[in-house]
Amino acid sequence: MTVRVRFAPSPTGYLHVGAARTALYNYLFAHANGGTFILRSDDTDRARSTEEFQQDILDHMMWLGLDWDEGFGKGGEHGSYRQSDRYDRYRDVAHDLIESGSAYYSFATSEQLDGFKKAAREAGTSPAYDGSLEPGYGEVASRIAAGESAVIRFRVPRPGETRFSDVVRDDMVFDHKQVDDFVILRSDGTPTYHLASTVDDVDYGITHVIRGEDLLSSTPKHILLTQAMGAEPATYAHLSLLMGPDGKKLSKRHGDTAMSAYRTAGFLPEAIDNYLALLGWSVGDEEDRASMSEMVDRFDLNAVSKNPAVFDTQKLEWLNGVYIREMGDDDFVARTLAGVEDDLGRELTDDEASQFEAMVPLVKERTKLLPEVADQVRFLFTDIDTYDEKSWAKVMDKPEGPVALDAATAALSGLETWSTETIEGALRGVLEDTGLNARKGFQPVRVAISGSTVSPPLFESLEILGREESLNRIAAARSLL
RNA sequence: GGCCCCGUCGUCUAGAGGCCUAGGACGCCGCCCUCUCAAGGCGGUAGCGUGGGUUCAAAUCCCAUCGGGGCUACCA
Question: Is A364 labeled as catalytic in the residue annotation?
Answer without folding.
Answer: no
